[in-house]
Write a sequence for this structure.
């Protein structure tokens, strides 16, 4: 009996030389979860696990050329978008996604590194808002959710309000990650009708161990969608996988 071909996931993201975030992390996540991974580099970075020292954005036309070339031989089952490398690249991706429809698009709206370096300016954030109507799910952390919604988030009610406003911009599903709030971490998933809350346990880990976990989460969600899961179970499995990754990093 012939085996079914592997599903294929595309990551559009920045390169992280440390291997713990960005497209390197995405590709490792894809492989660990049993799908074929392909990638398009949106930006180069000089960074390690604790600090980003410099970035160099890829030109929009070259970013699109990478993707179009992959599409000549690969059927893409899900797309994960991370660091976009500036407003011009986001605009180019919007044009591409309008021309070529993808069933599953996961957007991790990376705006700032864990160490605090800005990775996207105000114009880029405005373009991310335009991109929302073309994605399946967006996975902002609290700072990103505030930037997209204009809501100051101090508690779960704030997360819910931000999720509603982001959903109104066009995203089908919004997952606001609440890991930076006090207490046990809670993520809020909103589908336009109601909320589902993922309650976790706080794992003691340093910045280095947590570096890139947002990338892992969004990449793992893309894998679940590529394999045919609906959004909620895809998020649930992805969150469990992230927990496993953090535990292994702590060893």
């Amino acid at each position: 009996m012939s085996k079914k071909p592997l599903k294929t996931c595309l990551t559009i993201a920045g390169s992280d030389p440390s291997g713990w975030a960005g497209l390197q992390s995405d590709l490792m996540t894809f492989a660990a979860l049993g799908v074929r991974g392909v990638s398009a580099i949106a930006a180069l970075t000089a960074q390690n696990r604790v600090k980003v020292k410099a970035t160099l954005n890829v030109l929009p036309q070259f970013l699109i050329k990478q993707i179009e070339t992959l599409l000549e031989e690969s059927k893409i089952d899900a797309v994960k978008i991370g660091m976009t490398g500036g407003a011009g690249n986001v605009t180019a991706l919007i044009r591409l996604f309008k021309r070529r429809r993808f069933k599953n698009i996961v957007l991790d709206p990376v705006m700032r590194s864990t160490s605090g370096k800005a990775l996207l300016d105000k114009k880029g954030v405005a373009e991310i808002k335009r991109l929302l109507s073309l994605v399946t799910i967006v996975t902002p952390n609290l700072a990103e959710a505030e930037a997209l919604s204009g809501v100051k988030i101090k508690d779960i009610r704030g997360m819910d309000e931000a999720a509603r406003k982001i959903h109104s911009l066009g995203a089908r599903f919004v997952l606001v990650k609440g890991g930076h709030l006090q207490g046990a971490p809670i993520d809020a998933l909103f589908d336009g009708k109601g909320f589902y809350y993922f309650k976790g346990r706080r794992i003691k880990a340093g910045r280095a161990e947590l570096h890139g976990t947002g990338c892992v989460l969004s990449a793992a969600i893309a894998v679940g969608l590529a394999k045919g899961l609906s959004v909620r179970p895809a998020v649930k499995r992805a969150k469990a996988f992230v927990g496993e990754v953090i535990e292994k990093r702590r060893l």
